[in-house]
């Protein structure tokens, strides 16, 4: 991403919209390269499961501790399941997965495509009559759209289990009491809200990463700048989009 893109947000938005249109058109038209889609799902999704799990487990544990010890006089510890479940499923789960996993995924996408760009491999694809968007962007976009919701659901479950550990061993509640509180407080709308956000977050991370990679220039130094820009811009877009998506899902 160049200095002109930072200086002109409308230009950047237009370029991302154009890349988005080309990507979705290529995604819904034959021929599909499902082998590449599965490979990217393994690289971007499965290999990110560890960092997503650690993040959400300890977030659930910290959330349970802070909630119980901050307001002890109100008997909040008996509602730990509701607090942890609602907070993780609606908000913390999708956002933390997007920020932590998105930093890893976005940087990897940009570094890969940026290296191909500065070594003229992208130009070689064009010279052979292949569409770089179909070959390089679509598999990564499809993988992010499919795997971010999966990682979010797994992260939510692990975060709730992290809260269970604190509830049982630190707050001396029973596992049945905690889990019943979680299940009674969560609704389909809560789950749909969190999973719906993760689709948008995955889209932002994939598009920003691919755009910066395909527009990297200046050799290794340029690839490094593009990778940094991806992490920064993707994180900003996730946080800004989270606010508007939260308001949207509460309206719906």
Tell me the series of helices and strands, N- to C-terminal.
HHHHHHHHHH
Unreliable stretches covering 5 or more consecutive residues: none
The first-to-last residue Cα distance is 35 Å
For the biggest sheet, the summary is: none
Q: Which secondary-structure class do the elements indicate?
A: mainly alpha
Q: Helicity level, as a percent range?
A: over 70%
User: Counting H and I runs of at least 4 residues, what is the number of helices?
Assistant: 10
Mean pLDDT: 89
SS strand fraction: under 5%
Radius of gyration: 20 Å
Number of domains: 1
Total beta strands: 0
Instruction: Specify the overall morphology.
Output: elongated
SSE layout and pairing:
Layout: H1 3-7, H2 9-28, H3 34-45, H4 49-70, H5 80-118, H6 121-127, H7 132-169, H8 175-185, H9 188-214, H10 219-251
Helix pairs in contact: 2-7, 3-7, 4-5, 4-7, 5-7, 5-8, 5-9, 5-10, 7-8, 7-9, 9-10
Short summary:
The chain is an all-alpha fold and 252 residues long.
Task: Please characterize this protein's 3D structure.
- By secondary structure, the chain is mainly alpha-helical.
- The protein has one domain.
- It contains ten helices and no strands.
- The longest helix has 39 residues.
- The radius of gyration is 20 Å and the shape is elongated.
- Helix 3 packs parallel to helix 7, helix 4 runs antiparallel to helix 5 and helix 7 crosses helix 9.
């Amino acid at each position: 991403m160049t200095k002109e893109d930072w200086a002109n947000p409308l230009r950047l938005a237009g370029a991302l919209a154009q890349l988005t249109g080309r990507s979705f058109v290529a995604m819904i038209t034959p021929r599909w390269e499902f082998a590449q889609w599965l490979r990217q799902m393994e690289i971007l999704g499965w290999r990110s499961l560890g960092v997503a799990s650690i993040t959400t487990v300890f977030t659930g544990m910290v959330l349970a501790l802070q909630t119980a010890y901050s307001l002890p006089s109100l008997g909040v510890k008996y509602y730990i399941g509701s607090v942890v479940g609602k907070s993780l499923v609606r908000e913390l789960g999708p956002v933390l997965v997007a920020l932590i996993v998105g930093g890893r995924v976005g940087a990897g996408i940009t570094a890969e495509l940026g290296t191909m760009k500065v070594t003229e491999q992208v130009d070689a694809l064009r010279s052979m009559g292949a569409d770089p968007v179909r070959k390089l962007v679509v598999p990564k976009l499809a993988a992010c759209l499919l795997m971010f919701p999966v990682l979010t659901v797994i992260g939510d479950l692990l975060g709730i289990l992290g809260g269970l550990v604190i509830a049982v061993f630190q707050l001396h509640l029973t596992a049945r009491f905690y889990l019943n509180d979680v299940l009674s407080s969560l609704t389909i709308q809560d789950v749909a809200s969190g999973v719906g956000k993760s689709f948008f977050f995955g889209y932002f991370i994939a598009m920003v990463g691919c755009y910066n990679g395909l527009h990297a220039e200046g050799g290794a130094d340029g690839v490094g700048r593009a990778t940094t820009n991806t992490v920064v811009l993707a994180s900003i877009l996730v946080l800004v989009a989270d606010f508007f998506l939260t308001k949207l899902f509460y309206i719906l």
